[in-house]
Specification:
elongated, Helix-turn-helix domain-containing protein, about 290 residues, alpha/beta, 6 strands, 6-stranded mixed sheet, Lambda_DNA-bd_dom_sf
């Protein structure tokens, strides 16, 4: 059983349960922190799933919330134990975006808007190597190699026979026109993109320059949904030194509506494939 447990998702679910217990008790995070002689930020990190939760933390919080049902306590303690297990990504060492990988690994669907590059899940290895080297000029070759291997491993969600990820990607034309790794690399990348777009669980749409301003001009974002309704939808915003995860209903609703506008304004899937073919031919003529 443990091998199928996603520690990131377990931490989120446990955090939501602890928050629910606190709110039912009518206590603020500051009051709980004072009772346990810890910082308020620790309580907040435990509840939002960004911090590993020990069984001692759970025991102490259950005491504060006066949880008397041993079955509830045992269930929370088991979740805490599972949340401290390691996911497949831990084998690669320290990865700055490990929280996102954990969420992506367990997600049922992913909607992403990408204005600059082809999304990582749809990249060829040559393209990924060029993107990572260009984005991290001061990193070591070993770090580049590790990130490429992680990216290739993440792509197994696309080809998984058991539960393939439902992926919907809207790409700005700039992602297709930016020459990453050379024109031959771009031709291979666009051919790969076309191949993946034919899969029943993968949809690719293109937002051409000529369509002008649109709801995605503020930058890249992703919306992750999960198979268990107990796990709330997450909006992911990638940063240079830190990432942002939005889970409040209002934030999720705003980004979801914005994505619907993006899908409506972009070329439909068939038109998008024709557009990608055209760009690939442009590269072929330039190399010829």
């Amino acid at each position: 059983m443990a091998s199928h447990v996603n520690p990131t998702v377990r931490r989120r679910r446990l955090g939501m349960e602890l928050r629910r217990l606190r709110e039912e008790k009518g206590m603020t995070a500051e009051e709980v922190a004072e009772r346990l002689l810890v910082s308020q930020s620790k309580i907040s990190r435990l509840e939002n799933g960004r911090r590993s939760i020990s069984q001692r933390d759970v025991r102490d919080l259950c005491g504060v919330y006066e949880v008397s049902d041993p079955r509830v306590v045992d269930s929370l303690m088991q979740m805490a134990k599972e949340s401290r297990q390691q996911g497949w990504w831990h084998a690669f060492g320290d990865i700055p975006y490990s929280v996102y990988i954990g969420l992506e690994t367990d997600a049922a669907s992913l909607r992403i808007y990408e204005p600059q590059i082809v999304p990582g899940l749809l990249q060829t290895q040559d393209y990924a190597e060029a993107v990572i080297a260009g984005a991290l000029p001061e990193a070591s070759p070993e770090e580049w190699e590790k990130r490429v291997r992680v990216r290739m491993r993440r792509q197994q969600r696309i080809s998984s026979p058991e539960k393939p990820l439902r992926l919907w990607a809207v790409l700005d034309e700039a992602a297709l026109r930016r020459v990453v790794g050379g024109r031959q690399t771009m031709i291979a990348q666009l051919e790969h993109l076309l191949e993946l777009s034919q899969l029943p669980h993968v949809t690719v749409q293109v937002m051409p320059f000529e369509l002008g301003a649109h709801p995605g001009v503020n930058g890249q974002y992703a919306v992750l949904e999960f198979p268990d309704t107990a796990d709330s939808t997450v909006v992911y915003l990638e940063g240079v030194t830190s990432d942002l995860y939005l889970e409040k209903a209002g934030d999720v609703q705003n980004y979801t509506v914005m994505y619907e506008h993006l899908r409506a304004q972009a070329l439909n899937p068939e038109q998008s494939r024709d557009f990608i073919v055209k760009v690939a031919k442009d590269y072929a003529r330039e190399t010829g």
